[in-house]
């Protein structure tokens, strides 16, 4: 089967959508299918080649594009002739420029993965967004999204808790297929670095992600004084970079907790595995619907690490609550601090949570299993088209 993925973002830019498209494409190739990804050279891909084949065998075509708004690129080169010869067209949204270009205009089955709602963060660069602007922008986008998605043959989302609360997805016929993870690469690094699940730093907690308003790292920093009151030797490692870093650094200074926090910026995958393995818990304090699943939760579980996550649609459906980690109300530093303290107070229970999370990854979130669900959709749609 020849599949073309239309994704607004892709490698070398890194993010949830990019990782998902690359991993799904890799899983399909392992099953004997051919995959091409057509994407934009924005954001942050201007220096990447216009065409290349990645080590996994994924063929990549990058098109010239313009960035209409932040992270909403629109291709200036795409045309329908590029899709000739493919059996399946699989589009990833948002952004919606590729879907707009193909919806109702192609002969092949059209599959859409709806990654998340377009949501205006509460602030950018630490500056609050005018609240009157939010419903106007989001409402117009949601209406547009529903109109386009209605023209797809199949739409799927990654969790039902997200879909059922989405102003877009709850009005669209959809399926649910979770995200997977290739934990074999993690295991190779673990062996190379001689890491073991039980040898964790019982006072080290980890935040890993882009330092953006929707990620909620500032609420984690606000929780740290309460944590340090009970466990003064706790160390928080913040791994990532982004537009909110200056604001987060200001909070660290304001609370006078600099010695308890380490900023690492971006890191290699080997270093990330080491950080997960050595941390007693991964903290995932995201605050809004831009976070629809949280692949980092799978990474933490694959590395035998307990999780403390925000109770928001999507992320709240990933782990087995109480067994793999804990959920807390979003934007609530006191509740976040209490959950972190609960983890720190019982390191052995935290390690047991990490082991349960790893079991989840090996069964529910194994790409070998999940890719068969996607292939099943492809085959079903091709069978309908052939009638």
TrEMBL record:
Residues 199-359 form the Glycosyl transferase family domain. Residues 15-171 form the Glycosyltransferase subfamily 4-like N-terminal domain. CDD domains: GT4_PimA-like. It comes from the Bacteria. SUPFAM superfamilies: UDP-Glycosyltransferase/glycogen phosphorylase. GO terms for molecular function: glycosyltransferase activity. PANTHER family: SULFOQUINOVOSYL TRANSFERASE SQD2. This is Glycosyl transferase family 1. The lineage of its organism: Bacteria, Bacillati, Saganbacteria.
